[in-house]
Amino acid sequence: MSNSAVDATLTIRAGVERLAWRRLKLTVLAGPDDSVCVDTDNKSVRIGTEPGNTLQLADETVSRFHVEITGTRQGIRVRDLDSTNGTWLAGNVRVGEAVVPAGSVLYIGRTQVRIDALAGSSTPELSDRDRFGDMIGSSPEMRALFALLERVAPSDETVLITGETGTGKEVCARAIIAASVRAAGPVVVVDCGAIAPGVIERELFGHVRGAYTGAVADAPGAF
Q1: Do the Cβ atoms of 27 and 112 come closer than 8 Å?
Q2: If you ran DSSP here, which 8-state letter would residue 217 be given?
């Protein structure tokens, strides 16, 4: 038996871990965007009037972010995003959150959208690591997130992180910066929600003396 010291013990992962979800197809059956069709490999998709949605609608009776749809192994999960006019199944059942079968038709505002499950599934790349920065997790979901962040961090792309309060958005942002080429530079945090719309430009980019009433001196902005 060797007397050499062992610095660490490697963990053997049991079986082959795999994260997969159903691919979805959204088809507008009625409304201002009639016949619009979207195929997606994303796990979760959103429908609403804002540009950030997977399916952006022109229907004025649809909320900015109206409904979220997720393809799972159990079925297609539908979650209303506190919309003004609600999300309805088959036109008469209001949905807060429910698992529905493929082929279901959602009524949102004056628009009808059919949800179909496409053949096959979407399988994202998983990181070999169980941490990224200060984020730690060994589940397939976390390792899929780490794989995405490992690709994003070295790039010069703009990153938008969304999520509920307390889910770790700031921790994620700092981890991306720490793994980027900007790691040695300063991190400037700006709470845009606490800045009035009329002053946000000068708070971010600064101003020169006389730029507006009360600007008695030059002032640098956050950036």
Answers
A1: no
A2: S
Same domain? 26 vs 117: yes
Task: Report the interhelical angle of 140-152 vs 169-178 (nearest 10°).
Answer: 50
pLDDT at 121: 58
* pLDDT at site 16: 46
- The predicted pLDDT at position 97 comes to 94
Which pLDDT score is estimated for 201?
84
Same domain, 145 and 219: no
User: What's the gap between Cα 163 and its chain centre?
Assistant: 7
Q: What is the pLDDT of residue 22?
A: 73
Return all residues near 27 (Cβ < 8 A) that are at least 6 apart: 35, 36, 37, 38, 113, 114, 116
Which pTM was predicted?
A: 0.59
Please indicate, yes or no, if residue 9 is contained in any of the structural domains.
no
Among residues 52, 78, 74, 76, the alpha carbon closest in space to that of 65 is found at 52
The answer as to whether 93 is a domain residue is yes
Give the max Cα distance, the chain: 82
Q: For residue 166, what are the domain limits?
A: 131-178
pLDDT at 81: 95
- Token couple for 3: 């007397």
Q: Rounded to whole angstroms, how far apart are CA atoms 140 and 154?
A: 22
In this prediction, the residues of the chain whose per-residue pLDDT falls under 70 are 1-21, 119-124
Domain total of the chain: 3
Beta bridge partners of 68: 46, 79
The pLDDT value given to residue 20: 57
